[in-house]
Amino acid sequence: QVQLAESGGGSVQPGGSLRLSCAISGYVGCWYDMNWYRQASGKEREFVSSIKYGGSIEYSDSVKGRFTISRDIARSSSYLQMNSLKPEDTAMYYCQATLTSAASHYNCAGDYWGQGTQVTVSS
Which of these ranges, 9-13, 53-57, 111-115, has the smallest mean pLDDT? Predict the structure, then answer.
């Protein structure tokens, strides 16, 4: 069974930094793209960043220049380095992976979500 697990959230002062991690397991037979989303209380879910299996990267305009996404294939992990954090960055952050099977008999293909990790930026 494919599972994603986020970690690294917490509380930080404005201007501070946090590094989120997302580990994926149970993906044998698939390659995957990894994405980060966030959802603030009372607001819609928002795209943050993505990194494709081949390495291409995208950021939302709201985090461009402050956040950096990366991945470590050997550790089956994705990372989101968040610098110059603002109160408006406060949200539950979710890791999401889109898996594509190498052959039709594999059962790992699909979209999967982590449980979320809370980021709070306040003074």
Answer: 53-57
Whether residue 107 is predicted with pLDDT greater than 90 in this model: the reply is: no
Q: Are 40 and 90 in contact (CB under 8 A)?
A: yes
d(CA 18, CA 90): 12
Distance separating alpha carbons of residues 35 and 95, to the nearest angstrom? 6
| Closest listed residue to residue 77, CA positions, set 59, 63, 95 | 95
Rg of the chain over Cα atoms, rounded to whole angstroms, equals: 15
Return the HEC string of 7-75. ECCEEECCCCCEEEEEEEECCCCEEEEEEEEEECCCCCCEEEEEECCCCCEEECCCCCCCEEEEEEHHH
Of the CA atoms within 13 Å of residue 36, those in its CB half-sphere come to 33
Percent of the chain with pLDDT over 90: 82
Q: What angle do CA 88, 82, 80 make, to 5 degrees?
A: 120
